[in-house]
Specification:
transmembrane helix; GTP-bd; G domain-containing protein; GTP binding; 21 strands; 6-stranded mixed sheet; 853 residues; P-loop_NTPase; alpha/beta; Immunoglobulin-like
Length: 853
């Protein structure tokens, strides 16, 4: 390899042609040049060992320190930790062998928490998100990445990566269903609301007709107290609201309401709001005029209901009455004032707005009228009140989390002695000139000479001050201009990334909750977050962290200092982490359908819950009007029974739609026949709207055509029963196709059992049709006679609900063949999606002919 001589034109280096650039620019050419240079001054035998040792510190190691891989529904992520400081600069190729050919991953990136620490390399292979990639293809790609991944550097060295079985992880449904941070706040409120409903329902269902007045009063008091889960979530949400900074609430309220509108109503078409209304020009004397001006702080197109707007206006008036500066924009060089929090000045919401609203709702729900029409009116009013408070709290929290860059930092001042130093020379000459001129008029008089000296001194001081002010303004303008160039655009994600850099935390590619690492750092100080010494402690920690990054720091400490608000924001992030962790602790499974469709019976059999936990709405007086839920002991699932989809008032259906969004798995129940078969129309409309809205929604769902066992069965002609079952199922499919269109492709999560990793259940994206998700179903096929319990959970001598042995055995045969679903079929489906959510396999599916007493 020979170096090409650098040519020049008029004393300037000439631009080389493409071929020499490609030939002589690579690192291997520089290495060749270094070797040639050393060979000139040293003997090869003397330096060869040292040269190889130097190269060993630059090139990739033979193997990484650790390696892990996790399979998601849309990607395979492989994470490597290695001692290779220059990995980002020397890696030239990443590949693996797939189908006897080299395959290139979709992307790879590097991250380093400490300047002298190991490097984390993340390699991502995207999977097809349209459901066309089969499970064998996914496993083949996973196996290829695990066993044949090769990373080559510019020195010609290749690092082979091998991932052991124990380091392979398959993402669970909880990981894949994790909402974004801002959406998680909404989901936490919905979960707390639903849990409080279920808490009151359990109290009411436990009552008997013979209950005493004292017990009724005690029950009402219990209904007015929060359930354990509602208390946990609402206390964290209320802490976020109570610690909000009023001035920032006002400044960011238009944008927060815009975000709330997007998250709650799915409105992605509206434009982001403009800058804050300048409240410094609001009328100071006329109360009515000022009230109208304060109302302008809430955008007209914010999508607020009457209740939300009224609560926000009352809050703004409380701010204004406490201190009118709360409504005024903050100057860029000012700290965000943390001395006053929302709970100190707001009488409308107070310290526990969400918890107090749920407590009031629980008390009113318990006391709700037994008259159906009156109860529906009360439900409408009470539910709307809760949802208004939820939106207000959500908006207030977002004003704090979605703060701009200027809230996190404060622009530094230049060195103050500079302007005065610049004014020394003008001061000296101005004073000397003034004294000389005044002394010439004074003559030989000592008194007038002294006055001339004093006059010269004061004139010099004036010149000094004026010069300093001019120079200060010039330097300040230059400093501010340079600071603006160092300014970075910050949103919630960017602020989180900067904070992790300051704390030297690598972003773990497998963390579904990114706030967890920060929350663990702050956990010990969370109870004293508002104390001055706590704020100073973590403010210094952030500053020291950025200083340790040197030139790689995203924040220039020469132009900016860390503000107190950054610490307050950190503790808000820690509380958000608590919420998201609580939500991720369970899988939410909901059953929805019209009254008397068999939801309560299905849930009782699926979960093994005691009889009466899920009340049946079998008549007009006892219709299901509120959500019921069941948390099975030692299980990670919460099962919910939703209000009847055929209720005459839309309020109950709206509540069901709202609460449906908290679910990870949805089961729709459609009646096959019976006294309320007409109730199929509303639930089919609900299912149609649900499927149409599934643009990015991959939640698994199934539609059960229930009570097929009620169809006529003749032992002499069982095929007729089979045809009737198929016709009823096909009828539901046809009605849905008429609403949706014939060629409906449904993308949703599926579960497949594989022999990989410690939890061998692969959640992947599958393609389904309506024929795949609509199933004929019978609860009675595997139900005990006396109570709604699955036969697999009962002793062998338990009698069957379906007494006719031939009919029960025929349903057993159809279930074994997959033509009819029963409780064992649904349990198996749920068990695959979320292991441990339903009782483990007991005696299995039972036949009266084969296993009956």
């Amino acid at each position: 390899m020979v170096c090409q001589q650098v040519t020049s034109l008029d004393g300037l280096p000439a631009t080389p042609i493409d071929a020499p650039v490609q030939t002589y620019h690579p690192m291997r050419h520089y290495l060749h040049c270094v070797r040639q240079t050393i060979d000139v001054v040293q003997e090869p035998a003397a330096h060869e060992h040292n040269m190889d040792g130097a190269l060993a510190t630059l090139r990739l190691p033979d193997q990484p320190q650790s390696s892990r891989v996790k399979v998601y529904d849309d990607r395979i992520v492989l994470s490597l930790v290695m001692d290779a400081p220059l990995a980002a600069y020397i890696v030239t190729r990443v590949s693996y062998r797939l189908n006897n050919a080299n395959a290139i991953p979709s992307s790879h990136s590097y991250e380093r928490a400490l300047v002298h620490g190991p490097v984390t390399m993340t390699i991502v292979q995207e999977l097809r998100g349209d459901g066309t990639q089969t499970v064998p293809q996914i496993l083949e790609t996973l196996h290829a990445m695990r066993t044949s991944l090769a990373i080559r550097d510019c020195f010609g060295h290749t690092m082979a990566v091998r991932v052991a079985d124990g380091d392979v992880e398959l993402a669970e449904l909880r990981d894949l269903g994790m909402s974004s941070t801002f959406a998680s706040l909404r989901r936490a409120m919905i979960v707390a609301f639903a849990d409080q409903m279920a808490h009151v329902q359990r109290i009411k269902l436990a009552e008997t007709d013979a209950i005493s007045q004292d017990d009724r009063r005690a029950n009402r008091q219990a209904a007015g107290r929060l359930s354990g889960r509602a208390r946990c979530l609402s206390s964290t949400l209320d802490a976020l609201v109570a610690n909000a900074v009023p001035r920032l609430v006002v400044a960011r309220l238009p944008r927060a309401l815009w975000l709330v509108k997007k998250l709650w109503d799915g409105d992605d078409d509206s434009q982001a709001p403009g800058p804050q209304v300048d409240a410094t020009r609001f009328d100071e004397t006329d109360i009515s005029v000022r009230a109208g001006q304060i109302a302008s702080l809430i955008p007209v197109d914010a999508g607020c209901s009457t209740g939300v707007r009224a609560k926000l206006l009352a809050m703004l008036h409380d701010f204004d009455n406490a201190n009118r500066t709360h409504l005024q924009p903050r100057q860029l060089k000012q700290e965000v004032p943390l001395q006053t929090r929302l709970s100190d000045v707001d009488r409308t919401l107070g310290r526990r707005p969400f918890a107090r609203t749920l407590e009031t709702y629980g008390d009113r729900l318990y006391s709700r009228s037994s008259n159906t029409a009156t109860a529906i009116d009360e439900a409408r009013t009470q539910s709307q009140e809760v949802m208004d408070v939820m939106r207000v709290c959500h908006a207030i929290i977002l004003t704090q989390l979605d703060a701009p860059f200027d809230c996190f930092v404060r622009q530094t001042d230049f060195f103050p002695a500079g302007p005065f130093a610049a004014g020394v020379a003008p001061t000296y000459y101005a004073g000397l000139w003034s004294w000389t001129r005044l002394a010439s008029f004074a003559g030989s008089s000592t008194f007038y000479s002294a006055l001339a000296g004093i006059g010269g001194f004061y004139i010099g001081m004036v010149v000094l001050v004026v010069t300093a002010m001019v120079v200060e303004h010039a330097i300040d303008s230059i400093h501010s201009m340079r600071a603006r160039r160092k300014r970075i655009e910050v949103d919630y994600d960017k602020a989180l990334t900067c904070t992790r850099q300051a704390f030297h935390l690598t972003s773990q590619p497998f963390d579904s909750i990114r706030e967890t690492a920060i929350a663990e750092r702050l956990q010990a100080d969370l109870s004293i977050a508002n104390e001055g010494y706590t704020i100073l402690k973590w403010k210094n920690a952030i500053t020291a962290g950025f200083a340790g990054l040197g030139d790689k720091s995203p924040i220039s400490l020469y132009f900016y200092t860390i503000g107190d608000f950054w610490v307050k924001w950190l503790f808000d992030v820690a509380r958000v982490s608590q919420l998201r962790t609580a939500l991720a602790s369970h899988v939410y499974i909901g059953v929805e359908g019209p009254t008397e469709a068999g939801k309560s019976e299905l849930l009782t059999m699926l979960t093994g819950a005691p009889p009466g936990v899920f009340a049946s709405g079998s008549d007009e007086e006892h219709r299901t009007t509120e959500i019921q839920s069941w948390i099975s002991p030692n299980r990670r699932a919460i099962f919910c029974d939703f209000p009847g989809s055929d209720d005459r008032d839309g309020e109950l259906r709206d509540v069901a739609r709202l609460c449906r969004e908290m679910l990870d798995i949805v089961i729709f129940v459609v009646p096959c026949a019976g006294s309320r078969a007409a109730g199929r129309v509303p639930v089919l409309d609900e299912i149609t709207a649900f499927i149409r809205a599934r643009t990015l929604d991959l939640r698994p769902f199934v539609i059960l055509v229930n009570k097929v066992d009620a169809l006529d069965y003749h032992r002499s002609n069982p095929q007729r029963f089979t045809r009737s079952v198929a016709e009823r199922r096909a009828d539901v499919v046809t009605q849905l196709q008429d609403r949706l269109g014939v060629d409906v492709v449904i993308h949703s999560h599926r579960a497949s059992t594989v022999n990989v990793g410690p939890h061998p259940t692969l959640i992947h994206i599958g393609r389904s049709s309506l024929d795949d998700v609509v199933l004929a179903y019978s609860s009675h096929a595997q139900r005990s006679y006396d109570e709604p319990r699955a036969l697999s959970d009962c002793p062998p001598e338990t009698d069957f609900r379906i007494q006719e042995a031939a009919k029960q055995h025929h349903l057993y045969t159809l279930a074994q063949a997959g033509a009819v679903a029963d409780v064992e079929s649904i349990r198996q489906w749920l068990r695959a999606l979320s292991p441990g959510c339903v009782p483990e396999v007991g005696r299995g599916r039972q036949s009266k002919v084969l296993h009956g007493p």
